[in-house]
Amino acid sequence: MKAEDFQGRRVAVLGLGSTGTALVGRLLEMGAEVLAFDESDSAETAETVGRLRERGADARTGQARPSDLAGADLVVASPGVPPHSPSMRSAAEAGVETIGEIELASRLTEGTIVAVSGTNGKTTTTTLAGEMLKRTGRKVVVAGNIGTPFVSEVAPQDADTLYVLEISSFHLAYAPTFRPHVAVLLNVTPDHINWHGSMDAYVQAKAALFANQTADDFAVVNASDGRVREISRGVASRVVPFSTEPLAEGVFVEGGAIVAVLGGRHEEIGDAGRLQIRGAHNLENALAASAAALCAGAYARQIGQVLASFEGVEHRLEKVALVKGVTYWNDSKATNPEAAIKALQSFDEPLIVLLGGRNKGNSFEELAAVAAERARRAYVFGEARDEIAPALEGVNVPFELVETMDEAVRGAAASACEGDNVLLSPACASFDEFDNFEQRGATFKSIVDEMGPR
């Protein structure tokens, strides 16, 4: 499909966040007649609608009705719009083809796609793979859930471009023909159940990552994750496993070295002990990125150079500061219990953990059990505090309930001793108090910065 194919076509966009706005802009550039809807009636949404109207879109607040969509040639849903929303039900009733942003962009590109998905670790792995592939000298674009929407980056005559994409389950739910050349699935644990409606639906969305691949493509999969192994059974593409334990073939750790055995060729990529990023989960991310980069054409030497120098991504186990002998860590991206568990397991040193926000339909029992082993105290804040507290109480983790993250940080600082680590790893979404996890992490860093000299 080419951009000119949209000239004069009537396309409806559902959801006007950053991705929806980018969709509207790109569709207008391609000459489409654009209808746009957002079910929110906030002042911010009203401003967005006004700006899009000025650009020529028929933008509206409120849900799309079947009659609004009946004349559309195509409906494109933003990733934040759940399948059970009124507007999505209207699209189904109108009988119009409905796809997502990643699907639309993939139909427009001739480039090669490396897609990274999983419950946790996507951003670190995507960033690492992008850096590794840039060492090849090819044009590399990193996009998707990591920041810039894919649809904003797709360019005409882009056959030589490598697109390295962070892909969420929201994207995959609306991507019926999406076919990445290299697809990476890191892990699958409960998350976004409130959006998908069930764990089965969430797993099905993740499985869609491989659905359209052929024998010419690669499926990079975590050999240590049972759900990932099950999803990868029977895929048409070539399966490349990764593991922190030795494998017969794949990318793995052996004798302290990161090793690749692919197609009978044995290569040492680098020393696992030289990684700059903390935690066993980040070692898995490094292995996955290495496998993806190898499949997409990078050399082992280029990959090893990146692994030895990469210092991590903001809001992912980010070391913020040492204040009065206490080290503060920002892991605001830990928006589910499994991510917080992995962060906690990265510490053997004395630890105070900050937990809370808005629950996404998850249990906190397993997180509490790990906190009992790793943390000497917890500060629990936000909407989910009354859900987290009983789990901590059940395993005798000392904790204090507070309303806001600010109170949690300052409470932790007041109780911390020299040598302690204070870790923000909330295990929840941020939307009860913040616009997104980035704002939450930035606010945490700002509070720490106010505390005094390093």
CATH superfamily of the largest domain: Mur-like, catalytic domain
Helical coverage, percent range: 25-40%
Number of strands: 20
Largest sheet: 9 strands, mixed
Oligomerization state: single chain
CATH class of the largest domain: Alpha Beta
3D shape = globular
CATH topology of the largest domain: UDP-N-acetylmuramoyl-L-alanine:D-glutamate ligase
CATH architecture assignment name of the largest domain: 3-Layer(aba) Sandwich
Structural class by sheet pairing and helices: alpha/beta
Care to give the gist of this entry?
The chain is of the alpha/beta class.
Indicate the topology.
Layout: E1 10-14, H1 18-29, E2 33-38, H2 43-54, E3 58-61, H3 66-69, E4 74-77, H4 86-94, E5 98-100, H5 101-108, E6 112-117, H6 122-134, E7 140-144, H7 150-153, E8 162-166, H8 169-173, E9 182-185, H9 193-196, H10 199-207, E10 218-222, H11 226-232, E11 238-243, E12 250-254, E13 257-262, E14 265-271, H12 280-295, H13 300-309, E15 318-323, E16 326-330, H14 337-344, E17 351-356, H15 365-374, E18 377-381, H16 385-394, E19 399-401, H17 405-415, E20 421-424, H18 437-450
Parallel strand pairs: 1-2, 1-4, 2-3, 4-5, 6-8, 6-9, 7-8, 9-10, 10-11, 11-12, 16-20, 17-18, 17-20, 18-19
Antiparallel strand pairs: 12-13, 13-14, 15-16
Helix pairs in contact: 6-12, 6-13, 12-13, 14-15, 15-16, 17-18
